[in-house]
Amino acid sequence: MKSQRPSNEGIDLIFNIDGLPLSKSSSVMFWVIFGKSNLSNSDIFPICIYVSRRKPRCHDILKPFVDELTNLLSVGIEFNNYLYAVSVKSFCCDSPAASYVKCTKQPGGYNCCPKCTCRGVYIDGRMTYAETDAPNRNMEAFMQQEDSDHHVGISLLCNLNISLISVFHIDPMHCVYEGVMKRILYFLVNEKKSKVHINQLVFHELDQIYVSIRLPFEILRKNRSIKELNNRVNSFTSRIHLQKSPQSYPPILENHPTHFYKK
Q1: Backbone dihedral region for residue 63 (phi beyond 0: left; psi -120 to 50: alpha; all else: beta)
Q2: I need a surface site. Which of 18, 29, 81, 169 has the fewest CB within 10 A?
Q3: Quick one: which of 114, 115, 116, 111 has its CA closest to 127?
Q4: Distance CA 250, CA 72 (A)
Q5: Burial class (CB in 10 A: 0-12, 13-18, 19+), 177
Q6: What is the pLDDT of residue 40?
Q7: Cα–Cα distance between 191 and 183 in angstroms, integer?
């Protein structure tokens, strides 16, 4: 631990839990837990690295982590003759990992929403969550599993004195970049499966803009054509959503007011 004290005389912790396959030719995978604190100059530190040839039970990964964190939350950390109170600020996990460690339905299920009790409905072969006034989930109902269709088991994280509803944030990668941005791009450029698509002239101009935009040197992935949309990774759709769309769409819309073809 660094010698500096946090300004609030306590330590807030952020955790990340995720699985990582080592290669496509092997079933061996890592399941890791990382942490970060609010101390100044704090680096990300590994907490647990679990190696398995198949997806492990979440209890196997969480048991030592929960035992140690329970002690830290109740006792705190003593350093340089000073006692720091410890609290959990958030868990930063993607949607599949979050539902895995909370023992809830995976994304795409009828009752999978982590924030409210809306029930999904299939529309045109796709699961949709159109209900906007569903009651919010709360920790008391979560502990009692009042919405039984939302749970697939009892998570060890329930033993911690924290709210699993508020500390797990909505995952932008699956909900926005993959769930929205990639779907929008797919419909705009796919003439065969979309009722509304972008014409070839505008598509060519948009593609040229995406490829030509210069990115900071910290971003290692090179720009590629939108034609390779099916082979994209999440970093591409997030890059378009956060960086490229504001630069690309305005000139396209100005030069081509009738840029959509409708079947």
Answers
A1: alpha
A2: 81
A3: 111
A4: 51
A5: buried
A6: 77
A7: 14
100: left (phi over 0), alpha (psi -120 to 50) or beta: alpha
> Measured in Å, how far apart are the chain's first and last C-alpha atoms?
62
Name the one residue in this structure whose structure tokens are 């492990």: 56
Please state, in angstroms and rounded to a whole number, the distance separating the CA atoms of residues 16 and 63: 16
Closest CA to 93 of 79, 107, 82, 83: 107
Strand partners, 185: none
**86, 10 Cβ separation under 8 angstroms:** yes
pLDDT in tens, 123-159: 878 888 888 899 999 999 999 999 999 999 999 999 9
- Which residues make Cβ contacts (< 8 Å) with residue 11, sequence separation at least 6? 37, 38, 39, 77, 84, 85, 86, 87
User: Long-range contacts for 238-244 (Cβ within 8 Å, ≥24 apart)?
Assistant: 238/172, 238/173, 238/176, 238/177, 238/181, 239/215, 240/181, 240/185, 240/210, 241/176, 241/177, 241/181, 243/213, 243/215, 244/209, 244/210, 244/213
Return the residue matching tokens 């593609």. Answer: 207
Q: Is the pLDDT of residue 262 over 80?
A: no
Using alpha carbons, select from 204, 203, 211 the residue that is nearest to residue 240: 211
Strands 10-21 and 82-91: parallel
89 and 72 Cβ atoms separated by less than 8 Å: no
Instruction: For residue range 181-207, list pLDDT tens digits in order.
Output: 777 777 777 656 666 666 777 777 777
* C-beta separation of 156 from 59 below 8 A: yes
